[in-house]
Design brief:
Order of helices and strands: HEHEHEHEEEHEEH
Radius of gyration: 16 Å
Function: Has an important function as a repair enzyme for proteins that have been inactivated by oxidation. Catalyzes the reversible oxidation-reduction of methionine sulfoxide in proteins to methionine.
Structural class: alpha+beta
Family: Belongs to the MsrA Met sulfoxide reductase family.
GO molecular function, one term: peptide-methionine (S)-S-oxide reductase activity
Number of strands: 8
InterPro entries: Met_Sox_Rdtase_MsrA_dom (IPR002569), Met_Sox_Rdtase_MsrA_sf (IPR036509), MsrA_MetSO_reductase (IPR050162)
Helix content: 10-25%
Pfam family, one: PMSR
Length: 221
């Protein structure tokens, strides 16, 4: 019953698992598709974007296929437990959502284009679920790394929300919050580029079929 409760309830810091001072597993050095470093250092001029849009296996593939993306990695973000494991996150007792970190060259792919891909690749109106995947770890989220990213994310949300309403969808439930104090914890090695290693593996990513307006925010970065 406790597990079921935390499928639809974010734990408070007091309720969350205590975690650990450091990661208890290794993360691969290189991206299996792009050949780039997963944990950095990253090239000068690249920037970071963090997105949660359901099961991170299929979500990561959406971004590594995008021109201008230097590297991608999956992990856990937005919760309370330091250095969680996959099983802990899936229990709902950490408060994290499954996230994709995207390291990109803004001269090639602007942040607004990544936001468009984010919105159109999932259903952001479902709360603590994404399709048949149910739980707080599947909630929609954008964690921003600058005021410009925050402004662009909020503007794109508002524009897309209006478009979705005309198609009969409810309000967007995506949380848009600064990445400050919401660290990204890389996931276990077998999750990284999972669908490259397992081409026939599960992919729960599916959008609404409604196009997201672009050019809704002048800021980038």
């Amino acid at each position: 019953m406790l597990f079921s409760r935390f499928k639809n309830h974010l734990p408070t810091p007091e309720e969350a698992l205590k975690g650990r001072p450091e990661r208890e597993f290794a993360v691969p050095d290189r991206h299996t598709v792009l050949g780039t470093s997963l944990l950095g250092p990253y090239p000068e001029g690249t920037e970071i974007a963090d997105f949660g849009l359901g099961c991170f296996w299929g979500a990561e593939r959406k971004f590594w296929q995008t021109e201008g993306v230097h590297t991608t990695l999956v992990g856990y973000q937005g919760g309370h437990t330091p250095h969680p494991t996959y099983d802990e996150v899936c229990s709902g007792h950490t408060g994290h959502t499954e996230a994709v970190r995207v390291v990109y060259d803004p001269a090639v792919v602007p942040y607004t284009a990544l936001l468009k891909l984010f919105w159109e690749s999932h259903n952001p109106t479902q709360g603590f679920r994404q399709g048949n995947d149910v739980g707080t770890q599947y909630r929609s989220a954008v964690y921003t790394h600058s005021p410009a990213q925050q402004q662009a994310a909020e503007a794109s949300r508002d524009a897309y929300a209006e478009t979705l309403r005309t198609r009969g969808y409810p309000d967007i439930t995506t949380e848009i919050l600064p990445a400050t104090d919401r660290p990204f914890y890389p996931a276990e090695g077998y999750h990284q580029q999972y669908l490259d290693k397992n081409p026939a593996g599960y992919c729960g990513i599916g959008g609404t079929g409604v196009s997201c307006p672009v050019g809704v925010a002048p800021a980038d970065g």
